Amino acid sequence: MIKIDVVSGFLGSGKTTLIKSLLKAYENEKVVLIENEFGDIGIDGDIVEREGF
């Protein structure tokens, strides 16, 4: 079975915090994170890369 979580919301609603928490909770599992940023400046990708996910 494949579990899929879709996270969406307004700017500042806690999406990145939730994703970071989920990645830490499932650090011993195979996880795929697909990110789609529409802004001119990519914020979440930098955070995820910096934290080693």
From TrEMBL:
Signal peptide: none annotated. Coiled coil: none annotated. InterPro entries: CobW/HypB/UreG_nucleotide-bd, P-loop_NTPase, Zinc-reg_GTPase_activator. Residues 6-51 form the CobW/HypB/UreG nucleotide-binding domain. GO terms for cellular component: cytoplasm. It comes from the Bacteria. Pfam families: cobW. PANTHER family: COBW DOMAIN-CONTAINING PROTEIN, COBW-RELATED. This is CobW/HypB/UreG nucleotide-binding domain-containing protein. It comes from Clostridium tagluense.
